[in-house]
Amino acid sequence: MLSILGLAALWTLTVHEGVDARCRSQPGDSRFPKAQAWADLNSTVDGRLLAVVPSAKACADMGCTPAQWSSAVFRNTLPGQMNTYNWEQNYTSKPAELCLYNDTSSCSQGDVPLYAINATKPEHLQAGVLFASQYDLRVAVKSSGHDYLGRSTARNSLLLWTQYLQDVEFTDSFMVGGQDKGSAVTIGSGVGLKTIYAATKEVGKMVVGGTAATVSAGGGYTQGAGHSAFSPIYGLAADNTLQYEIVLANGSFVTANEVLNSDLFWALRGGGAGSWGVITSATMQTHSIFNATAHRANILFSSTSQAAAAMTVHAQHIFDYDELRAGQYFYVYNIGGGESLLQVSTLFANVSGDDAQAALAPFLADVQAVGATLVNETVVTALVNDIVGAADDSAGYSGVLGSRLMPAAQYEQNPSVIGAAYKTLLDQGVAGVLGHLVAGGKVLENADISSAITPKWRTAKTHVIAAMNWNDTTSPSDVVELQERFFAQNVPVLAAATGEGDSGSYSNEANVLEPDFKTTFYGPNYDRLSAIKAQYDPEDLFIVRAGVGSERWDISGMCTL
Ligand SMILES: Cc1cc2nc3c(=O)[nH]c(=O)nc-3n(C[C@H](O)[C@H](O)[C@H](O)COP(=O)(O)OP(=O)(O)OC[C@H]3O[C@@H](n4cnc5c(N)ncnc54)[C@H](O)[C@@H]3O)c2cc1C
User: What atom in ligand 1 is closest to the CA of residue 147?
Assistant: First the structure.
């Protein structure tokens, strides 16, 4: 067995000899750990090493119900699962390696990790990191498996699974370098938003979080930036993050904040999920609880031309809510035959139902004036934690996204360009165009915060996603073609709608095929991120697709290019 130093020396030698590819060890490779080594690791991690299977196989073996299959809360108990479970499949291997819900008779492992450490304390993760380094293994890091880019799973890998790091601890004065940062909550990296919202409600607080049940704030969410309907008031979730505790590639367990490992802290806030180490906890500012009002409206478009006109109207009204600092989700679903349904959900803090309705009235009048049909309108006021939270997330389906941060300037100057993009996308057959008014206000005002969040977030008004789904009967070759076509045809429509040549995209809800991901996801921060990566992860243990350093690796993260 070679020591870590021995392996590093061997790698250096082969590079110097002109053999430019380095491959991590895989089953069948003489360097891959033998059964005894895995058994020893299992003892070190208190028996918490698991053999991992694809979610469809796990579900079939335990006889789970269809409702469980599509429940993110239930799926969180399965180490192999991804919410969009196409990321568990390997469509391009010959033959394709699949394990599908509608047919588990011949399941392959696909891109599901081989083993997982079900960590309940940092020492488990430290042992996993050292083991992976010793045997030059591919690692994957997962909390909820929500990732839309498939970054929390990897073929032939050892999974460092943090779902069961579930501690939640409040303080009235969180100290960083002797400075009191005020009221905060420290959450384990497995804690889902639903749990945080319930816990903060108990103590009369709220945190900046998204509308989801199981997204992990201490996992990928803030590493990407983390948007919320309340971001126009409080900024992005990463702006509200005060500290991380993290296991690094060298096995050390460190704190990163404005004072300790401050360069790593800078990178962790927005520099891309999964590239830095294994976070065990994140500390976020808390804010006093308040009443929130959700105004919801469903609006039907009878043709894609009408959708264009209506979404131009929507774009013209996007600044209507600025004074009240409301956030809004505006999702257009393609229902076929040229028809589409806009679901607009506008969330206000400390605003009465009547005032919320008054704020929406000009938009609703103008959208009906272009022929759209207002199907219904509802208004609910409740504690913010109940308004923003979700009981569960829908999961167990296949699909991909593409997105762009839509500049405020484009809304001011060219709202009809944005509206026209909806027609093009719907005519192209996307499943939906999902808009998020989660920027401007405090997101812009926080531009002076030193973090790796792409500056495109600061000048954006909205984050707009195009989505495409497919079902289990789609052949592997069709899946590959669908994804390529989606990226080649649909995503450029969003990019063009920004009016920018160097448009930006939110790395957590985006397309993994972005060719210039360095600019699109990280903008001017990429060079500094690369330097920090070299310092904290010099051997590229933590590589995810479209993440910092991934340009050196093939798409499986197994061999250097
Ligand atoms: C239903 C749904 C709703 C969403 N709503 C919002 C929203 O309102 N606002 C928003 O901003 N985003 C939202 N997202 C996107 C979400 O921010 C990303 O999917 C995010 O990556 C999820 O992080 P996770 O840790 O929960 O997921 P995972 O799939 O477990 O991980 C995602 C990424 O984080 C890394 N990671 C996970 N755990 C750790 C860890 N402990 N240490 C280091 N790296 C880790 C993984 O390697 C991977 O790269 C939503 C997603 C879904 C599916």
Answer: 29
Q: How far apart are CA 465 and CA 111, in angstroms?
A: 25
The ligand 1 atom at the shortest distance from the C-alpha of residue 162 is 41
Decide: 93 and 21 in contact? Cβ < 8 Å: no
299: number of CA atoms within 13 Å, CB side?
A: 29
Of ligand 1's listed atoms, the one at least distance from the Cα of 225 is 11
Q: What is the pLDDT of residues 193-244, one digit of tens each?
A: 999 999 999 999 999 999 999 999 999 999 999 999 999 999 999 999 999 9
Rounded to whole angstroms, what are the CA distances from 443 to 134, 228, 240, 455, 465?
42, 10, 11, 10, 19
Of ligand 1's listed atoms, the one at least distance from the Cα of 393 is: 1
Which residue's alpha carbon is at the smallest distance from atom 28 of ligand 1?
145
CA nearest ligand 1 atom 8, residue: 210
Residues 200 and 304 placed together within one structural domain of the fold: no
Distance 427 CA to ligand 1 centre (A): 30
Kindly give, in sequence order, each residue whose CB lies less than 8 Å from that of residue 93, ignoring residues fewer than 6 positions away. none
**Whole domain around residue 30: which residue ranges?**
4-163+543-552
Residue nearest to atom 44 of ligand 1 (CA): 274
Cα(461)–Cα(407) distance, integer angstroms: 5
**pLDDT for 77-134, tens place per residue?**
999 999 999 999 999 999 999 999 988 888 999 999 999 999 999 999 999 999 999 9
CA dihedral (530, 531, 536, 538) positive or negative: positive
The answer to whether position 17 is within a domain reads yes
**CATH number, domain with residue 102:** 3.30.43.10
CA–CA separation, 166 vs 146, rounded Å?
Answer: 17
From 70, 129, 152, 280, the mutation candidate for ligand 1 (largest count of ligand atoms within 8 A of CB) is: 152
Asked whether residue 478 falls in the same domain as residue 441, the answer is yes
Q: What is the whole-number distance in angstroms between the Cα of residue 82 and the centre of ligand 1?
A: 11
User: 401-432 pLDDT, tens per residue?
Assistant: 999 999 999 999 999 999 999 999 999 999 99
**Total number of domains in the chain:** 3
Calpha distance 161→37 (Å, rounded): 19
Q: Within this chain, do residues 52 and 154 fall inside the same structural domain, yes or no?
A: yes
Spacing, Cα 148 to ligand 1 middle (Å) = 8
What count of Cα atoms within 13 Å lies in the side-chain half-sphere of residue 303? 5
Shared-domain flag, residues 410 and 311: yes
